[in-house]
Each structure stands twice: as structure tokens, then as C-alpha cells.
Amino acid sequence: MTTSIHITALDGVVNVNSLFTFAVFVGLAWNPRDPNNSLILDQTCTPDSRVMEDMISFHIYSFSAFLFSSLVALGLKQAIRLSGPTWTTSAAGGDHDSFASFLGQVNKGMVRVGMLVSGVGSVVGCVFLMLALINVVQIKLGTLSCASGSGHSAAAIVPLVILVPVALLIYVSIVLYAFLRS
Predict the structure, then answer these.
(1) Cβ contact 182:80 at 8 Å
(2) 23-36 pLDDT tens trace
(3) CA-angle at 131, arms to 47 and 17, nearest 5°
(4) Where do the structural domains in the chain lie, given as residue ranges?
(5) From the CA atom positions of the chain, what is the Rg in Å?
(6) Taking the model in full, what pTM does it have?
């Protein structure tokens, strides 16, 4: 039972990381009907090249963290499946699953640490993706420090910097609870 829960949790990590990785690539490639790649009306609000460089860097860091997390989760899942249940034959001739033998083959401590490391990778990826999106907003709507254009930029960024950290706090709390309880 516990091992199937671990495998399901690892599948969830890989699926979510895949969605975020897709979002990274869409964020780098998306340019809806905007040949200048911005919606800035006041040219004094145009960000410098450092903001654009940071956006690309944060996208790459995010991708790397999600890939790391997914590879750790897939490796754990594969290790759990490879050390899968051994089938024994009972005296009556019927096959049954020797669950006790299966649990003895899985190093529960390594699974817990691996799941924790995978969760940390996902959190780091989300933080870098949020930072990249903040830079996307500045590129599209104007820098946050610009007096005339910052209202739209701030309005776009405020929900991002509130909702993402709250969601990450909930995620980390649940992962730590599961880590301490398993």
C-alpha cells in the first residue's frame, strides 16, 4: 500500500513538472501579434537588456530544476518497480504476493529522501518560473520602477507574488507532513 502511494506521488510530481516545463517553453516562444515583443506605450518604461537576460536565465534555471526533480522522481519510481514484489508459491500450489519480502527490498529511507529532493527541485523550479514571469511582465508592460507604466506591471505581478508563494507554502507543508509521517 505504502509503495503504491509513493509511485502515485512520484507520477504526480513528474506530471506537474512536465506541465511547468511546457509552460517554460511557451513562455520563451509566445509572441501573440506583437512584433516588438512589448505592449509598452511610454518608451522610457522599456526595460534594459539585463531584464531580458534575466528572463532567459530564470527560464533555463526553472527548466533545469523541473528536469532534475522529474529525473529523481522517475529514478525512484524505477527503483521501486525493479525491487518489486517477489512471487512465491504457497504449499497449496497457488501464487501469492509476499508483501513482507517486497517491503524488505525497498529502502524506505532512500525513497523518503529522494521524494524530498524531488520536491525541493519542484519548489526551486516554481520560484525561478515565477521570477521569469515577473521579467516577462516587465518586458511586455514596462518596468516596475517606471512611474507612468508601472500600474499595469504591478497589477499583473501582485497576484503572481502572492498566489505562487502561498501555493508553494501549502505544497511544502504537505510534503513535510508526508515526509515526517511516512
Answers:
(1) no
(2) 777 766 665 445 56
(3) 140
(4) 2-26+43-181
(5) 23
(6) 0.75
